[in-house]
Amino acid sequence: MSTVNSINPYTHKEIESFKKHTKQDIAEILQKADHRFYLWRETAFSKRKELMLAAAKELLENKQEYAETMSLEIGKPISQAIAEVEKCAWVCEYYANNAEKHMADVTIETDAQKSYTKFEPLGVVLAVMPWNYPFWQVFRFAAPALMAGNIGVLKHASNVFGSALNIEKVFKRAGFPKYCFTTLLVSSDGVEQIIENPVVKAVTLTGSGPAGSAVAQTAGKHIKKTVLELGGNNALVVLADCDIDATVDICVQARFQNTGQSCIAGKRMLIDEKISEEFIEKLLVKVRELKSGDPMDKETYIGTMAREDLAAELEQQVNDTVKAGGKLLMGGKRQGAYFEPTIVSEVTPKMVMFNQETFGPALSITTFKTVDEAIELSNNSRFGLGVSVFTTDIKNAEKLVYRFDEGAVFINSLVKSDPRLPFGGVKESGYGRELSSHGIQEFVNRKTVYIN
Ligand code: NDP
């Protein structure tokens, strides 16, 4: 099919129909992007900084416009969509102000008169991105990539083509030269051919394991670097000495923000059995207070899920868990793409909600007797993106950090991405890092210079 229709998951009405790029369109765009690279890498950091700050300003000035498209396309509550656009402005500002420092030469003393490492951009980098944070996932790639002197081409998820074009618009309105950042309207079956094009030097993908594996396979065949940010099944480890009220609030946000559709959401709650009764009672009160409704309403916290098929998949996972002995404490029902906030307790590692990623507003609860058991349960996952540990004994918690097989350990906080901190996983959550100095240095040639 040469068109893609985007459907509003809340109203089920068609929003827009997009004409996909043809193979010839794509070849031409890639050619022009490559040509742009050789000019773009000559620009001074001061010029790139000026443009990136203009992109941040554009985002903030028109956040309502950009947020509305996201809400219409994926049922994301508008207040959370606005916050997402604001966070994108932050990452633009962060790299505008820090890229030059992160990319500075590093002198290494050897027997040469002078020897050092230079960080140079690679060229055109393809980003294959998901729908769950339609702006943020792209900006956290684009801001460092462009500041490093690379060129970005985006293949966004097929249900967010409106947002994909808006992102291109942000850079255009900010004054970036043409083809510094281009959106390709293409389905997943067109990705292989893009990666194979010699102009494309590297690929970054955020999304599911099968998508990551397919992209890395093609990139590997052509010896092109990949960064993969895949799924997660983060645990929320609630120790007996935690501050219960504060922890409840953080856990609710960790699981239910973005209607639960986040790779770093806390999906498996592990609670010390000594406090589980009191904790669960308070948790249920807070989750019942979450307001479901029209994503365009400022008061809505739980919107619809992004697509009906994703909600149906979650329904199946919850039903399977309950059938296997999980205790449904609240929710569990679906209406189209809307899924009620759901909590299932007495979940064991053999049950679906424990051993599969649930990508929606459903939390599983498992109790433990000892800290060793909690760590073992937390590590009992194919994924390794992050974990949250809640305790008032921070010294002891820090001693436990090395025992978690994760890309990140957050103590008394939900796992979150921050432009200043590296972000990424281990195990089937992927490899490579985004954000901070680590993110900008992923798509560079670390050139050794030796002068005798
Ligand atoms: P996908 O992983 O299928 O989609 C993510 C991106 O990859 C989209 O741009 C998609 O394009 C593209 N893609 C998919 N398959 C391929 C392929 N074989 N080759 C090249 N590109 C591909 O996510 P889904 O929308 O299907 O969601 C399914 C599950 O993935 C979720 O339930 C969740 O578990 C996980 N997921 C994880 C995310 C994360 O942040 N880590 C984000 C989103 C999903 P297209 O849309 O055209 O198919």
Automatic annotation (TrEMBL):
Entry keywords, A to Z: NADP, Oxidoreductase
Coiled-coil ranges (or none): none
Domain Aldehyde dehydrogenase, residue spans: 3-449
GO MF entries: aldehyde dehydrogenase [NAD(P)+] activity; succinate-semialdehyde dehydrogenase (NAD+) activity
Residue ranges of the TM segments: none
Residues forming the catalytic site: E229
Superkingdom of the source species: Bacteria
Recorded family membership: Belongs to the aldehyde dehydrogenase family.
PANTHER family on file: SUCCINATE SEMIALDEHYDE DEHYDROGENASE [NAD(P)+] SAD (PTHR43217)
Name of the molecule in the record: Aldehyde dehydrogenase
Species the sequence originates in: Patiriisocius marinus
